[in-house]
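Notes from hallway chat w/ T.B., transcribed later so I don't forget. T.B. wanted the structure written out for a chain they're using in a teaching module, and asked if we could keep both sequence and structure tokens in one place. Agreed to drop them here.
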Amino acid sequence: MKYQKLRASVWVVVSMGILAASGWTQFAAASDQYKIVNSSQTMGAGGIDYVYADNDGRRLYVPRGSQILVFDLDTLKSVGTVNNSGGHGVAVDPKSHHGFSSRNPVTMFDTATLETIKQITVEGNPDGIFFEPATERIYVLSHRAPNVTVIDPKDGSIVGTIDLGGQPEQAASDGQGQVYIDLEDQDSIAVVDANTLKVTAHYGLGGKGGGPGGLGLDAKNHILFAMCHEPATCVVLRAEGGKCSILATLPIGEGTDGGGFNPNTMEAFSSQRDGTLTIIKENSPTSFEVEQTVQTKPRAKTCTLDTKNDHIILITTEAPAAAGAAAGAAATPPPNADQAGGGRRGGRSGPGLLDILVVGR
């Protein structure tokens, strides 16, 4: 009898331990998931496109209407505006502390005072913008030739232009002089020598995906992640020694317009118009999987990476009446909901709330 009671007591203790361990495992798994960890709303007017994190200066830039809105990257509190500017996106040179807004003319400004330094007239139709770290230059991307205008950020002088043979959406640098730029209308990635400003190759997506709108690069392993519209797919490629091979295709959400890669976590990511953020894990240079689909907000289709905190930051706009909705709600926007702000990329152009969403663990 005593033995049976002892055995029963042991079993109860063991069972409690198993349940506790199971509960902890579930808690740990939940805590390791990406979610919206911070957000802010700012009333204003005008369409939006790209969001840019200046990781060195710890500021966040959002062009809206005729201004560039500037926020503290850590708190999301407003720190000022760059007036008489706007445009599609911003890039900053961390050495000269000069910022640039992609429009025509390009606005060059001081990131400390937020005062305009000069206006730079360029050709084409500026859209995306990118700071290339190896040569310390600004690339202004255009859907019309010349497809790239290269600017010296120290004085704002034009170094040269590049014809890519297609419409660029996003660029990534390996830090060693190779720049990769996805071409939305060519279903390919152009390779540019940053020193000569010459196109050295075009890497096709092999019919696996069309209309690449976002791009991530694992520079260490020479892996490219092309986030495509049709179908909604990430095409994973290895680019090395002037050659390219397709490694995998993975599903993403609908309406990608931005992406990237975080070497700290070995994860690629893609933000989508349907209110989702796709996280792709690189398990090894030959193994990839969709790790998580995070619910964000409708039209939050562009993003940037806070490398200090491993946070992904997205933006969208909504009518004031929708402000009470939960930050993680993912309603499907009506067809052509963002056409009033300038087509697929414009966003809501009238008065409304700018939502900044910070996604992290």
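Follow-up for T.B.: The first strand starts at residue 35 and ends at 44. Might be a good example for the class.
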